[in-house]
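Thread: Newbie trying to understand structure tokens

Hi all, I'm a second-year student working on a class project, and my supervisor (Dr. K.) asked me to get a predicted structure for one chain before our next meeting. I've only ever worked with sequences, so writing a 3D structure as a token string is new to me. If someone could post the tokens and maybe explain what I'm looking at, I'd be very grateful. Here's the chain:
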Amino acid sequence: MMEILCAKLKNILQLTGVTGEIIFSQPPKPEMGDLAFACFDIAKKEGKNPAEIAKEIESTFAKDSADKQKLQIVDRIEAFGPYVNFYLNAGEVAKLVINEVNKKNYGANDLGKGKKVMIEYPSQNTHKEFHVGHLRNVCISNPLVQLYKKSGHKVVTVNYINDFGAHVVKCLWWILRSRRDAINRVCTGENKQKWLGEMYAEASKYIKDHDVETQNLASVQIKSELDALQKKLENRDKEIMKLFKETRQWSLDGFKKIDKELGLKYKEIFFESDVKNSGQKIVDELLDKKIAQVGERGAIIVDLTQCGLDIALLRKSTGAGVYLTSDLGLAVKKFKKYKVDESINITGSEQDFYFKQLFKVLGLYGFKHKMSHIGYGLVNRPEGKMSSRLGNVILYDDLRDEIFARMLTETQTRHTDWSKKKIEKTACLLTMAILKFTLQKHEANKVITFDLKEAASFEGFSAPYLLYVVARINSLLKKSKVSASSADRHKVLDELVASEEKKLLLMMGDYGEVIKKALENKNPSVIAKYCFDLAQAFNDFYNKHSVLSAENKDLISARLALCGAVRKVLVDALGLLTIEVVEEM
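---
Reply by user tm_fold:
Sure, no problem. This is what the structure looks like when written as tokens:
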């Protein structure tokens, strides 16, 4: 929408004799106007002082009355040093902005028209629990899917589940070693996915305590057992595969439940167990082409030291594959099947270097498709770093339930007249909003600490604050006897003259540019910050100006139209974050 506004201002500048490229910026202070044009380039061309040029444009505008229709959008122009600053007419801006906001799919663009992108997430592991780190992956990925769609891309969402890695071997090894009669002893009502996570944590602790990197007898025995089990697994040993498939299903059943809660839908789910063999064949091809070589003790490597990427391990000395082995097979398979223009992997930032190695090896192999990686920082507890190996992660289920209990109590306290069903539904919506927004408001690469008190607050940069603004606008529109949608906007919108009203209009007008910026930087936190800024600007307006008790009916109608537009943009922006709003709070 700002393109339309800027086009009108460009026409005005051209009327005053300005030629060449015209770019606008925002003045540093509100009292200096709404938009500014720097005169440096034009002054350089004409060999004049930029401040002198700015004064000339100001003077020409003041005298020009040839085309008042084109000038209506501007109240006045003032020169501030080398800048020409525009003071916009709030009523004219309102007519322009609110008309655009009420069009279908406001803020969308066609930058991705004809393009097809694959987004691969959350790439969780079986035989481990779904924790807040995985949740952060989803909270970054889901908005990216929506941003790409909003920009005209065709999006293919897939998940790549690691069901065949070393962590699975450790978990199965511990189940077999501890002789717990595990499958029979896990009762029907128990969270089997959680139980598997505990098995993995116990195995990791035992291995760490016996330090498998040393050469003592116990560590050698452990390493030998793990290697043997890994080999059996990759060779599809019948006995091991039976245990593997049954325990894997426990994880997959848990994932399905979480996928439904978080709104995850995939075109396809790839499993490491299905691509590892094809990855091994690619390793053989890399050996044949002399790209890979036999390294220490028979391991297969690619020397990437000249590229600053160290040594990439493709196959263990035991012959077993590694993550990179499988990812080679996956890359070929997914591009062959879906023929996308780009594939985006979203994982923790600790894997940034790994993906650089993967992409380089693929390039050496002759793979020419575009792949990119978005890394995100860790989510810590207030008491320190999490680790699934140590069993001290914040589990998604536990965090969700804790927030829900808090929101349930809060909603019951505020609305004693509501039904149980309505209270629980509201608490559920608030819970999901808190979970998502808290992890979306930070840039992906930042390490964050999940502070529950701050996340659940109804004040500040939080989900409840945003949803409360939407609920407040809903209440205004519901109480009103004047329909904003039926108002003659080209008449009543002239009533919008306050600076707070103009600020809201300009912020809504900038929504399309915000979407472009968020997508360009692959950064959903841009949308989260925009939601907060818009909500804050609305509260500032609401605290200073009456809506339903305004001076006259036209002003009431105009402000209701403004409120309705703010609600529409805010709901749409929250929708990009996959956050559902509540009607009342």
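A couple of things are worth pointing out once you decode it. The chain has a mean pLDDT of 90. The chain has 23 helices and 14 strands. Feel free to ask follow-ups in this thread.
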